[in-house]
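User: Second chain of the day. Same drill as before.
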Amino acid sequence: MFTDTHCHLADPALRCRLPDIFAQAQQSGITGMIVPTAEPNDWAHLSDLLCQSMIRAGAIGIHPWFVQTESAGCLADLAQYLQHNPRLWLGEIGLDFYDKSQPETQSSLQIQLFEAQLDLAQQHQRPIILHNLKATAAIVRSLQRTQFTQGGIAHAFSGSMEEAKLLLRHGFKIGIGTLLLNPHAKKVRQLTSQLALSDILLETDSPFGIKNQINTPANLLAIAQQVAQIRALALPDLAQQCEQNLQTLLPCP
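Assistant: Same format as last time:
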């Protein structure tokens, strides 16, 4: 019924028990998954995961946390993966300016690598899965500089409606995740009530996103229930809308 649009199944915490994870997800009405990666060490595992029937797409990329450990050679490897597999997106990529004390050189490195990956995504006509922490303005500038038009998913979005509109104009859907399960997360609850239903996708960010426990795609049901309650929708109607939203990003069969 639902697709978890962001679950790190290549992470060691999940990779070792995939049959159980798939079974639990199906029991909770989760019928599809999109699997992003964060660094090259994960890419080979993703190739194996794409053989699983529940995996609708994968994403490869270099997360902003890893910009200093990766070299330009990784970009050539990325291009090779994209060229040979049309089910791959770019992700999880983006900018992370949460740490205000990080040196300007680090921010510049992030921007340089992000824009190089945007160029690859544009060249191969692939959506991206966007990591954005305190960096919306810089991300929009990068999207404009690279003339990126492929859209994607703004992962675990926690910004304002005004910031969301900036990304929506560039073809992004807004990823709603486990933050919605926090009753004190008023900002994301308000955003969920204000967004057009055609702009929403759901995600868990497994195995992350839930304090002191390993998150799994089965928990997407709880997120969907919260969205349905906030929007006064039946779950099947929400599932149908989310599927329509996702289809705008997936390649035609």
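The domain at 2-247 is CATH 3.20.20.140 (TIM Barrel).

User: Great, on to the next one.
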